[in-house]
Amino acid sequence: MATAAYNAGPSRVRAWATAQPMEGAIYAETIPILETRVYVQKVMLNTYFYMQRLGKQGPSLKQLLGKVSNVGTWQSKEMQIEEIME
């Protein structure tokens, strides 16, 4: 969600949040703004590829996307990604 908020703005992302947990990949596919949807997909995919290229033993892309239910869920995922990349 942080990646989407960077592109579309935090108020829009809060409006897209769901009460029920949703797979991150499904969330990314349901972002209503095409530019933001493609941006999120590219950032997450590039994060995964760079981890592989740098030899980092990280989570799968599905694990990396995780589940989305509210802003706090994705904030913790973003922090986990930063820890892996260090």
Textual characterization of the structure:
The protein is mainly alpha-helical. It has a single domain, classed as Lysozyme (Orthogonal Bundle). It has six helices and two strands. It has a two-stranded antiparallel ribbon with strand order 1-2. The longest helix is centred in the middle third of the chain and has 20 residues, at 34-53. The protein is globular. The model is unreliable at 72-76 (pLDDT under 50).
What features would you highlight for this structure?
mainly alpha; Lysozyme; 6 helices; 86 residues; single chain
Q: In what order do the strands lie side by side in the largest sheet?
A: 1-2
Main sheet attributes: strand count, strand direction, barrel closure? 2 strands, antiparallel
Q: At the third CATH level, what is the topology name?
A: Lysozyme
Strands, count: 2
Sequence of secondary-structure elements: HHEHHHEH
Strand content: under 5%
- The helical percent reads 55-70%
- Overall pLDDT: 78
CATH class division: Mainly Alpha
- Low-pLDDT stretches are 72-76
Secondary-structure arrangement, i.e. CATH architecture: Orthogonal Bundle
The radius of gyration computed from the alpha-carbon positions, rounded to a whole number of angstroms, is: 12 Å
User: What is the number of helices?
Assistant: 6
Number of domains: 1
- Our measurement of the CA-to-CA distance between the termini, rounded to an integer number of angstroms, reads 21 Å
Oligomer status: single chain
Overall 3D form: globular
Structural class: mainly alpha
